[in-house]
User: Fold rRNA adenine N-6-methyltransferase from Paenibacillus cisolokensis.
Amino acid sequence: MKQRNHRLPKERKVPERDKLHGQHFLRDRELILEMIGIAGIRTTDTVVDIGAGAGAITLLLAKKAGKVLAVENDPVLAAALRRRTGELRHITVVEKDFAITRLPQEPFCVVANIPFYMTTAILTRLLDSPAEAFQRAVLIVAHGAAKGFTARRIRSARLLAWRMWFDIKLAKVVPRHRFSPPPSVDAALLHIRRKSSPPVPLQHRARFIALAEYGLRYPDLPIHEALKGIFTPPQLKQLLRAVGANRNDPICRLNERQWGIVFHTMLAHVERHRWPARRK
Ligand SMILES: C[S@@+](CC[C@H](N)C(=O)[O-])C[C@H]1O[C@@H](n2cnc3c(N)ncnc32)[C@H](O)[C@@H]1O
Assistant:
């Protein structure tokens, strides 16, 4: 039996210096304009810049967006940022750890070159509560992390839950030399958008997560093994036909659309007492 695997793709081990600050600054105006373009920022948008540094992204964002919230926890950088943005009343500088920063209540986007060590924590804050105000983002993350979040095989229930309600795409690889100082790995632009028609409606989120946690408790199990506690053999046969998969395919090969079919088939045909409950 393979090891249980409920975790997200591993983040690389980071050197202590990166871990303390994650400070790799962008000097590349073209790349920042490209990020703002991919995010489709308009004058009606509220945009958060997470880890704003001295404002490389903030200042260009301010030309396109209605409001900008620039979050930076390093006091020296935050002071420089305040000096550079002093006249611009639609920019708010928040000198705080992003983990404890209040997010806007109104719909908002994020365009940011984030500290890599916080990647999973940041995505968790943005994507774990899809009922909230976050709409879309273009983030610079480590290339390896971007590959994990967009992988064809979905091995963790949390990543699956994110991808059921948000499209996550790797838009472009960004070589490390485009930062100063360069990080030890290449980076990538991660493009995240709320899905307009998710395969499972938001009201079923908790129930879907229970199914995902159950189904992916051993992500390499064949589908028929992984789901046999929920579906009877005839139900399973019908389900496999509907999702277009083989009974021996590993369950981690199901995509978001196929998981949607598994969920709706469970609601329609399986007795309630067989539906998985959420793990404590
Ligand atoms: C990769 S740099 C990006 C700086 C700037 N946005 C740029 O592109 O040049 C990440 C920034 O995040 C800041 N930072 C690190 N941890 C943070 C945290 N917990 N909360 C807010 N900012 C943080 C660092 O001080 C640094 O300025």
In short: The longest strand covers residues 134-142. The beta strands are 25-26, 46-50, 67-71, 91-94, 108-113, 134-142, 166-174, 179-180, 187-194. Residues 1-6, 9-19 have pLDDT under 50 and may be disordered. Residues 21-26, 51-53, 56-57, 71-74, 77, 97-99, 113, 115, 118 surround S-adenosylmethionine (CB under 6 Å).
